[in-house]
Write a structure and sequence with these properties.
The complex is a heterodimer of chains A (487) and B (100). By secondary structure, chain A is an alpha/beta fold. Chain A contains 20 helices and 22 strands. In chain A, strands 1, 2, 3, 4, 5, 6 and 20 form a seven-stranded mixed sheet that branches. In chain A, helix 1 runs parallel beside helix 11, helix 6 crosses helix 9 (218-231) and helix 11 (328-345) packs antiparallel against helix 12 (351-369). Chain A is globular. Chain B has a single domain, classed as Ubiquitin-like (UB roll) (Roll), CATH 3.10.20.440. Helix content of chain B is 13%, strand content 31%. Classes of the chains: A alpha/beta (487), B alpha+beta (100). At the A-B interface, strand 8, helix 5 and strand 9 of A face strand 1, helix 1 and strand 5 of B. Strand 9 of chain A pairs antiparallel with strand 1 (2-4) of chain B. Bound molecules: flavin-adenine dinucleotide and FE2/S2 (inorganic) cluster. FE2/S2 (inorganic) cluster (FES) binds at residues 33, 56-59, 61-66, 77-79 of chain B.
Chain lengths: 487, 100
């Protein structure tokens, strides 16, 4: 880029305006750094506080007090003076390989906003890109009418929409119970909840129970779950699931078939909401070159970070569920810690000042994480749902089945990157977000090794498709293009 | 199938648009994907690979199953675009879209 344009130059960019990003941006800007907060959504809030500024669901008891806490994060952001750019899709974060003529090496951020692309230069970036629902591959999960429970919750928060007709929820994990509870408050119809939590998980989770008993969520979580169990039909020990359309048809969901105690049962369904946990949304960190590791307890890949969220790439840190699942309150505190460290790295505060300011945030973070290990262990999905049967589509974009992945392994495919060339698996527009975790698990199980050994897709920017029309707005010397795409 | 909660104000917030040329109504703030679901349209495209029907799955911009044509531009993520007055939303035939 030529001379820096002050409108496109900041000390710190924060990507993601969920709890982590909101807290990080507010704190960093309140200490005098120039900060821009970027998010592809039109409104701040991230996933948990989605549409908190404008939700049509005004009856506060429906979404619950944890949701409305999000509104409290907006005032500090406004007061902090941080620039807030909603509707900005970040498709590249890159640190050029070499210093510029002036000896500096600012980070370049490629984004699209209002239909045109722009580049920002910043000295530090905090990625707070949050989580996504763990892919839940079952036969028929691509049928219209099958959605993620989190997706259905987005419809409730942003539009006040609830399922009508026969509705089945299936899976496990806190978010499934929360949504069921929110539907109860809203008076929505749920025909059944099919609980896939494996019985055996209790054995592994029990030793971790003492930690969970000190968790601030225990009381709330139990109350919510008991109310759901009392008022709705909950069917436990479900070991297999299948979504089916009309006989011979594949245009819409008609029924859900489940296995319990070895017997198959069928429920008519217009809507099936699937959920078995959330995993870090790490595409941007991965494409930025941040090292990542396999987390056995959460059974997912997570970028490697230190206790401030700093990654293996200088000037790039992570905060919130994008760095490993800890929940919204933990995300908020992690955002503050990452902001303090960024201020320190930029020379705005000394090490001592950073460490002192961090004390209450770290204590709150520890509190928020109390009991996580119990939840992670209890809600680890069964292998049958992580590495599904041969006839199940794992890559929705290219329509590749688990069987095809296993066949490729037999032909010598050793990991997800090879699966791309064998099968085109992970080459579609979702860039592996909906198949990566499953492909890792299927290959690992087939080879009889740990997912850590199998690895994950190596991603390249842009992490979101950009159109030529959007790119037309960019300066286009070869060096500029190299900086964005080939760092 | 999805319905709007009864207490939600829609009258003053109504947005008129079209789905494959048919008039439809949504609420301001709805994404295009939400607006389709609210109008009983669960399938919004067919896939280029097998021609199977697909509808919105993640509602957060990661699955790309909500692709539709908006005002003549194909392959837009319906869950990431807000519905606007007069918008022409068309469901997509996957095979045709590839040839475009
Ligand atoms: C669909 C869904 C619903 C959830 N609902 C709840 C709930 O009701 N209660 C609860 O306790 N937990 C919920 N969670 C769990 C969630 O992970 C929370 O713990 C919390 O939202 C995490 O906060 P965060 O700040 O880390 O990220 P998030 O809140 O997820 O925020 C991340 C933000 O980053 C933005 N982003 C990501 N990539 C880019 C990019 N490339 N360019 C621009 N912007 C980008 C996203 O648009 C998003 O707004 C939900 C998770 C999901 C996936
Ligand atoms: S519904 Fe998944 S990208 Fe829109």
């Amino acid at each position: 880029m030529s001379a820096p344009n002050p409108k496109f130059d900041f000390d710190i960019a924060v990507v993601g305006s969920g709890p982590a990003g909101l807290a990080a941006a507010a704190l960093a800007a309140s200490k005098g750094a120039s900060v821009v907060l970027l998010d592809e959504q039109a409104e701040p809030g991230g996933q948990i506080y989605r549409a908190v500024t404008e939700t049509p669901v005004r009856d506060r008891k429906v979404l619950g007090p944890d949701y409305w806490h999000g509104a409290e994060l907006l005032g500090p952001l406004r007061d902090s003076g941080a620039a807030h750019w909603p509707g900005a899709v970040v498709w590249s974060v890159a640190r050029p390989r070499e210093d510029a003529a002036d000896g500096h090496r600012p980070i370049q951020i490629g984004l699209s906003r209002n239909g045109s692309a722009a580049m920002l230069t910043v000295r530090h970036v905090i990625l707070a890109t949050g989580a996504l629902e763990r892919p839940f591959p079952i036969p028929g999960w691509t049928l219209p009418g099958v959605l993620g429970a989190g997706a259905a919750q987005v419809l409730l928060k942003t539009s006040g929409l609830v399922p009508s007709g026969a509705t089945v929820m299936a899976g496990s994990g806190p978010l499934l119970w929360l949504l069921a509870w929110q539907y109860l408050q809203a008076g929505a119809r749920i025909d059944a909840i099919l609980d896939t939590t494996p019985k055996e998980n209790w054995r592994a989770a029990l030793p971790l129970l003492p930690g969970f008993l000190r968790s601030p969520y225990l009381g709330k979580g139990m109350k919510l779950m008991l109310e759901v169990r009392r008022k709705l039909t909950v069917i436990g020990n479900v070991t297999a699931l299948r979504a089916e359309g009309a006989i011979g048809g594949d245009s819409a969901l008609k029924s859900v078939v489940y296995t319990r105690n070895g017997a198959e049962h069928r429920l008519p369904a217009d809507t099936l909401l699937l959920h078995h946990g959330v995993i870090p949304n790490l595409n941007l960190a991965n494409a930025t070159g941040c090292a990542q590791r396999w987390d056995e307890q959460q059974r997912c890949w997570r970028p490697t970070t230190d206790e401030w969220g700093a990654t293996s790439v200088e000037g790039v840190s992570l905060a919130g569920d994008g760095a490993g699942i800890g929940g919204a309150r933990a995300a908020e505190e992690a955002g503050r810690l990452a902001a303090l460290d960024a201020l320190h790295r930029l020379g705005r505060i000394g090490r001592e000042q950073r460490d002192k300011a961090a004390v209450p945030f770290r204590a709150a973070l520890d509190r928020a994480l109390t009991g996580r290990a119990f939840l992670d262990t209890l809600y680890t999905p069964a292998e049958a749902f992580r590495a599904p049967a041969d006839d199940t589509i794992v890559c929705r974009c290219e329509e590749i089945t688990a069987g095809a992945v296993r066949e490729a392994v037999r032909l010598g495919c050793s990991g997800p990157n090879q699966a791309k060339s064998f099968l085109r698996c992970g080459m579609g527009p979702c860039q592996g977000r909906l198949c990566g975790p499953t492909v890792t698990e299927v290959i690992a199980a087939e080879r009889g090794v740990s997912p850590a050994e199998v690895g994950y897709y190596r991603l390249r920017p842009p992490v979101k498709p950009i159109t030529l029309a959007e790119l037309a707005a960019l300066p286009k010397t070869d060096a500029d293009i190299d900086a964005v795409f080939k760092h | 199938m999805f319905r709007r909660l009864p207490e939600i104000e829609t009258a003053t917030q109504a947005v008129s648009f079209t789905i494959d040329g048919r008039p439809a109504s949504a609420r301001a703030g709805d994404s295009v994907a939400a607006a389709l679901l609210a109008n009983g349209v669960t399938a919004c495209r067919t896939t280029p690979v097998s021609g199977a029907a697909r509808g919105p799955y993640c509602m957060m911009g990661v699955c790309f199953d909500c692709l539709v044509t908006i005002d003549g531009t194909g392959n837009r993520q319906g869950c990431q675009v807000r519905v606007a007055p007069g918008m022409a939303v068309e469901t997509q035939n996957g095979k045709r879209e590839v040839e475009r």
